[in-house]
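New to this. Explain the following:
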Amino acid sequence: MTWARASIKTLTWVGLLAGAWMSSSCAPSGFADETVIATVRILASSADPAYAQPGSNVGLQVLAFDGRTTQTEPMQIYWLPFVCEDPTNDAYYACFQQLGSGDAGAPGGDGGAGSAGIGALRPGVDLTPFLPTGPSYQFQMPSDVLTQHTPVAGEVAPYGLGILFNVACAGHLELVQLDPTSDNPQQVPLGCFDQSENQLGPDDWVLGFTRVYAFEPDSGITNTNPTISSIDVQGSPLSVTLQQNTSQIYTTQPFTTSHCTASRRSDCPHVAIGPVVPQSSWEVTQQTGSNGSSQNEEIWADFYSTFGQFTGDASLLYDATKGSIGDPSVTDNQFLPPDAAGNGFIWIVVHDNRGGASWVTIPVEVQ
């Protein structure tokens, strides 16, 4: 079912930033490694609770980072303060026409202008004075989100959908004029501009969105974000600390490793690293297998860093039917440190295939 997919997507100014999570991160010559953060990037977002109820308050968190070597203007995280409620076919881009026309939906929370405030503005006007900022945001799920949603054939229970947009921009935001002759439904009605009114490209901004699904309380359908118990580093646990006032954001103390000194990078020793996620996070879903038995979630981890290289960009932790893939010796990724000493970060984002997500920030000291 389409509503049981991951909740965070990011778009560049020209369209969707896509990639299969099982693909390798070893980039061909001339292509950037997607696991190495060298631009403005949104890596993940998460809702708490991961599944909501009509009229309930939902807290959102976003993980973004500015990896640019030269930062002429600082990156800021902005939230569009409206809930795009039950867009046509559950498509995020169906919200764009609402935004451009001023019919954006219900206000999303405190600290921002409502949909009418943004919709009344026109291209060329700086939106940022009207927008909430920061990595967290709270909104109220519309009380009619279930009744407004078009029923879907085969759905296990009636559901509704709210989509919230977040933006990482090293400048300010403006509405942009869409091409009325274009048949492309994914034209993005926003742009990021510098102080000289130059429209910035995909290295300097990214538009993300978070899907939050809603069910009736008596449906029994719930979803929690995965728990990260610790981080395995070369077979030893690295303790995690839950960030205050969150249920899904973790940090660790720095770990130290040596830089690569071999003449060939392929000869350098790798650091085995990965998350430890308890069995309790492998939740039962409402989906059933071919034999009629209940299925559990699929859980995997995505890996990012500011330097060095991973041998893969993701690692499967729990299969939907088979369960745990194995202990960290099986599921750890391999990190190749950089050629020079320095400090940086590794991020590990743990997803389930119903939109739950948690992440950990790991400082790395390379000697």
